Amino acid sequence: MPYSASYSATKHAVNGLVKSVRGELQGTGVRIWAACPGRTESEFSQVAMGSAGDSYKMPKGESTEKVVRAIVRGLDGKKTFVMPSLTAKACVAMNRWCPKFLDFLVSRWARKHRVPGLAENQTRHP
To answer: How many domains, the chain?
Structure first.
């Protein structure tokens, strides 16, 4: 996703770690899982974008309360990855079954949601 390179990279690393450790702990009775909530309403994106995001309104996500409730419900399940929203589940399914189409949709979304000056602000160093 645009403006999320560092976040996306770390999320992929955590998911890879969860998959690997799950295999290592198989049969021990220890369960491991990761929550993959998708876009959640919070000030996270605004803070991450710094001053360039001050005048930009990010698209809404799922309410924090809804995401937390779904994650808590998922704790009792057998799934390794808990995806508490339909949007998160749909993105994962699309990425698995038709990744090029998802890339196309994300590219279209990104063009509509460009933040003027953000890339320049992030690449300049004092």
So the answer is: 1
Q: For residue 58, what is the enclosing H or E element?
A: none
Contact indicator for 40, 11 with CB cutoff of 8 Å = no
Q: Of residues 36 and 25, which shows the higher confidence score?
A: 25
Domain range for 9 is: 5-123
Condensed to tens digits (0 to 9), the pLDDT of residues 45-63 reads: 666 666 555 555 666 778 8
pLDDT for residue 31:
86
Residues 24-29 have a mean pLDDT of 91
